[in-house]
């Protein structure tokens, strides 16, 4: 399947039902990684649909969007799993998932679970001046950072937004020298020092591995 | 018609038109024009407090309303705030000299582990505009920093801000410490930040959650009025 980042940003990813018994409702920013893990591990029991990744910039809208998607699809699946962490919802997404009876990824956000929640929490004390980008966010830097913050029109606002940050950490899920260069350029544009940190898929892989196909279907 | 013919000469506008023009210039984030207009009004004998409230706060109220209604976005609000800051820099020393009314005093800061200050800075500015004396502790404040400032400044209001889900619980640490020390009720505690909500504010024992800078100002004023009434009644 060829994924279009622009489409993932604004529209998400429509459900392409297969034989899956577990539906993943995910952030569009995770579509590449989820489909890669599904493919290399032959997790055919997992289906995927994604909400627009740009909700990342409007966390208050995430709980309702997730709730709508769960209610829309729940009759077709034995299990639904929400591939979002808290993502700036201040606990509201967890409350929504609890009310719906579905589980979600633990942790504050994808930067944390890509690195591993435990390891990320350990770094918090010393790394709260870091600005994080993932593979997807490096590719979509302009759509998620530069333009929504108005830096294309008002570059003079850069230090108002980023003056308290010290470094940009590129959390790489894949090994792509072109993305590393693009991430470095993002750091330069924000006037931050650059760090390239290979995280791989972190806790995302662990969480997806734990989603077994319901036994009933093997009997 | 040439561009030159369209140019507005601020000094040629009457007071009413000039204030309307300042609303437009604030909305468009034109700092130099705001500074020029403030100076013109001062030359015309306007009291600094009147310029602050009628022209600057009046203009920022329109900006705040349009932000709340989704017409303006963060970059435009920041530019408007930058323009207002330019005007306030001229007025601030004069306000002190002319004995402008002081509504109350606030200590405000972003909590420990959090470096985000855009919202907090907007609140500080709008609170100053509304006549509050504001002591801004900046970012990454541990409980000790808040306690020290409360003791030294003796404010009416403590404001705390957080942008991260991981840092917002620290507000409770601060409030719990105030309770332990028996000084919680000496202050009105207001909290704000993108991931917060009213429920969270209540759960941690704050007096109020403030959705944006305009709400913070109104909430602060209302608590000050209540305090004033209680003192009068007592």
Automatic annotation (TrEMBL), chain A:
Q: Pfam families from the xrefs?
A: DUF1638
Superkingdom field: Bacteria
Q: Which InterPro entries match?
A: DUF1638
Q: Where is the DUF1638 domain?
A: 50-207
Q: Which organism is it from?
A: Parasulfitobacter algicola
Protein's UniProt name: DUF1638 domain-containing protein
TrEMBL record, chain B:
Q: Domain B12-binding, which positions?
A: 103-234
Keywords from the named record: Cobalt, Metal-binding
Domain (B12-binding N-terminal) ranges: 9-103
PROSITE patterns hit by this protein: B12_BINDING, B12_BINDING_NTER
**InterPro entries according to UniProt:** Cbl-bd_cap, Cobalamin-bd, Cobalamin-bd_sf, Met_Synthase/Corrinoid, Meth_synthase_dom
Q: Which Pfam families match?
A: B12-binding (PF02310), B12-binding_2 (PF02607)
Instruction: From the Swiss-Prot or TrEMBL record, give the protein name.
Output: Cobalamin B12-binding domain-containing protein
> Which organism was this protein described from?
Parasulfitobacter algicola
């Amino acid at each position: 399947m060829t994924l279009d980042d622009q489409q993932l940003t604004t529209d998400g990813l429509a459900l392409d039902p297969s034989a899956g018994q577990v539906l993943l409702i995910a952030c569009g920013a995770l579509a590449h990684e989820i489909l890669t893990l599904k493919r290399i591990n032959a997790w055919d029991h997992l289906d995927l649909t994604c909400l627009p990744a740009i909700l990342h910039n409007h966390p208050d809208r995430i709980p309702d969007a997730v709730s709508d998607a769960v209610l829309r699809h729940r009759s077709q699946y034995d299990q639904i799993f929400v591939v979002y962490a808290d993502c700036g919802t201040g606990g509201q997404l967890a409350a929504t998932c609890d009310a719906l009876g579905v589980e979600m990824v633990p942790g504050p956000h994808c930067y944390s679970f890509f690195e591993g929640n435990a390891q990320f929490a350990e770094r918090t004390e010393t790394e709260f001046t870091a600005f994080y980008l993932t593979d997807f966010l490096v590719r979509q830097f302009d759509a998620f950072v530069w333009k929504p913050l108005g830096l294309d029109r008002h570059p003079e606002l850069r230090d108002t937004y980023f003056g308290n940050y010290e470094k940009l950490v590129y959390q790489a899920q894949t090994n792509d020298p072109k993305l590393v260069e693009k991430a470095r350029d993002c750091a330069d544009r924000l006037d931050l020092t650059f760090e390239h940190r290979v995280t791989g898929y972190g806790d995302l892989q662990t969480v997806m591995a734990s989603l077994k196909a319901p036994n009933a279907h093997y009997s | 018609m040439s561009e030159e013919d369209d140019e507005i000469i601020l000094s040629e506008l009457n007071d009413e038109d000039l204030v309307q023009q300042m609303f437009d210039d604030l909305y468009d984030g034109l700092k130099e024009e705001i500074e020029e207009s403030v100076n013109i009004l001062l030359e015309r004998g306007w009291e600094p407090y009147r310029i602050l409230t009628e022209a600057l706060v009046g203009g920022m109220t329109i900006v705040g309303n349009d932000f709340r209604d989704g017409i303006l976005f963060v970059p435009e609000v920041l530019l408007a705030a930058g323009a207002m800051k330019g005007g306030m820099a001229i007025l601030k020393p004069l306000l002190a000299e002319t004995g402008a009314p002081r509504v109350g005093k606030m200590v405000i800061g972003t909590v420990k582990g959090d470096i985000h200050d855009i919202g907090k800075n907007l609140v500080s500015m709008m609170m100053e505009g509304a006549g509050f004396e504001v002591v801004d502790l900046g970012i990454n404040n541990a409980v000790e920093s808040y306690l020290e400032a409360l003791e030294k400044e003796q404010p009416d209001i403590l404001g705390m801000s957080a942008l991260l889900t991981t840092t917002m619980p620290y507000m409770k640490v601060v409030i719990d410490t105030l309770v332990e020390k028996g000084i919680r009720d000496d202050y009105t505690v207001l909290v704000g930040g993108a991931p917060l909500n009213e429920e969270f504010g209540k759960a941690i024992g704050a007096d109020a959650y403030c959705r944006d800078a305009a709400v913070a100002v109104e909430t602060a004023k209302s608590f000050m009025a209540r305090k004033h009434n209680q003192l009068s009644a007592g």
